[in-house]
Every structure is written in C-alpha cells, then in structure tokens.
Design a protein that fits this description.
By secondary structure, the protein is mainly alpha-helical. The protein contains four helices and no strands. The longest helix is centred in the middle third of the chain and has 19 residues.
C-alpha cells in the first residue's frame, strides 16, 4: 500500500509501484518490497517539498520576503516559495 497522501494514478503512486515491482523481482518479500518503496517515495516527497505543511511554507515565504503570503493557500505558497528560490 502506498504511503498516506499518495493519490492513485499520481507520479508518486507509479513510482511506488515501480520500486515495489523491482524489489520483488530482486527477491525481496512482499512486506520488505512495500517498505522499501514507501521509504523511497517519502524521501522524494520530502526532497521536493511536497510534504511541508502550510505553516512551514508560510515561514519559508516570510524568510524570503514574499508579500501577500497571509492570504495564500498552501498550493499558492508552494509555487511562490519555489519561484523565489529559483
């Protein structure tokens, strides 16, 4: 089962299934393959900032001096922070 927050058919869901299949082909048990795939997907989510809360994004926006941040949704904050970082 993919990690919580991973929608069916999404990029992360496909990534999870691919890694799980590869691990099973390498001889890992079902449970171990699921664990490895879930950890890999969670690591990628964290690296790309997908797992940040709105509050964390708000604080990042504050540090970057983004105006209008208090009225922004989580999605808007993600885009603003990503755009400001480069």
């Amino acid at each position: 089962m993919p990690p919580r927050g991973v929608k069916k058919g999404s990029k992360r869901d496909r990534q999870y299934k691919h890694i799980k299949k590869s691990e099973k082909e390498a001889g890992r048990s079902e449970d171990r393959a699921e664990e490895i795939a879930a950890r890999a997907v969670n690591k990628e989510k964290a690296r790309s900032g997908e797992s940040k809360t709105r509050e964390q994004l708000y604080n990042d926006a504050k540090k970057l001096g983004i105006e209008g941040r208090s009225n922004m949704s989580k999605d808007e904050l993600q885009h603003a922070v990503a755009g400001a970082k480069g």
